[in-house]
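Weekly sync, protein design subgroup
Attendees: M.S., D.O., the rotation student, P.L. (late)

Item 1: inverse folding check
M.S. brought a backbone from last month's batch and wanted to see whether the design step gives back something sensible before we order anything. D.O. pointed out we never logged the input encoding, so this time it goes straight into the notes. Structure tokens as presented (73 positions):
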């Protein structure tokens, strides 16, 4: 079962499931808002709130760098 750990509205939500952590990043466009989930790795597993905010912004700005970690339903 997916457990919500941290929520930053309109920015990101941190989840944990089966001992793995995932960052759901919100993309806000003028017409359509959507989200994508990414598996956290290594040091990211222990990031604090501010570090997670920076990571979410980096993911939004450089999707290509993180796309191999995207969780697709």
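Designed sequence read out in the meeting:
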């Amino acid at each position: 079962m997916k457990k919500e750990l941290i929520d930053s509205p309109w920015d990101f939500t941190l989840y944990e499931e089966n001992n793995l952590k995932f960052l759901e990043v919100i993309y806000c466009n003028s017409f359509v808002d959507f989200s994508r989930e990414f598996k956290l790795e290594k040091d990211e597993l222990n990031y604090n709130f501010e570090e997670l905010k920076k990571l979410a912004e980096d993911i939004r700005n450089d999707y290509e760098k993180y796309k191999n970690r995207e969780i697709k339903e």
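Discussion: The radius of gyration is 12 Å. Helices lie at 49-61, 63-66.
Action: P.L. to compare against the previous round before Friday.
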